[in-house]
Amino acid sequence: MKISGVDIRPGNIIEYEGGIWRAVKIQHTQPGKGGAYMQVEMKNLIDGRKTNVRFRSAETVERVRLDTKDFQFLYHDGDMLVFMDKDTYDQVSLPEDLLGDAAEFLQDGMEVVMELYNEKPISVQLPDQVEATIVEADAVVKGQTASSSYKPAVLDNGVKVLVPPHITAGTRIVVDVYNREYVRRAE
């Protein structure tokens, strides 16, 4: 499906120069002289390269629809991650770097959505938020609680996040996977 260059939105998958790209950030610009354009930061879904491209309204790009399937994460196998198709029970091994930093949040049995292009897995979407336990948190500095300051803490998966002063080691919290931020205490 062809769309105008200025209609690209973050998260859109487009075909550009023979590759499959995901729009990460966009910025619409209307200079005083000349036509408006869309500055798009894109990431290649096959090899991970990033690029910035300007699209004018007259340019069109091919928007790609990816197939999505529900998978379950099973285990780490060296630097490979093993997932199981929830419908057919087939197992798929993918390199850990395909997930980037989000791979640290994988938990055994976690439900994920795999995006496929021509039957080949090209990305894995984790849930936006996961529960984790704090194993180490700095002590509160006296007088620091009056302002809305945050302190560093380490989660059970080794990821460091900033948490409010009242959160202590052993507390279960909800963390935003992609922003690596504290959301709230877990129920």
Secondary structure category: mainly beta
**Count of individual helical segments:** 0
Residue stretches low in confidence (pLDDT < 50, at least 5 long) are none
- Name the average pLDDT: 83
Order of helices and strands: EEEEEEEEEEEEEEEE
CATH hierarchy class name of the largest domain? Mainly Beta
User: What is the CATH topology assignment of the largest domain?
Assistant: SH3 type barrels
Describe the secondary structure blueprint for this structure.
Elements: E1 2-4, E2 13-16, E3 19-29, E4 37-44, E5 50-56, E6 60-63, E7 67-77, E8 80-85, E9 91-95, E10 111-117, E11 120-125, E12 129-137, E13 151-155, E14 160-163, E15 172-176, E16 181-185
Antiparallel strand pairs: 1-6, 2-3, 2-6, 3-4, 4-5, 7-8, 7-10, 8-9, 10-11, 12-13, 12-15, 13-14, 15-16
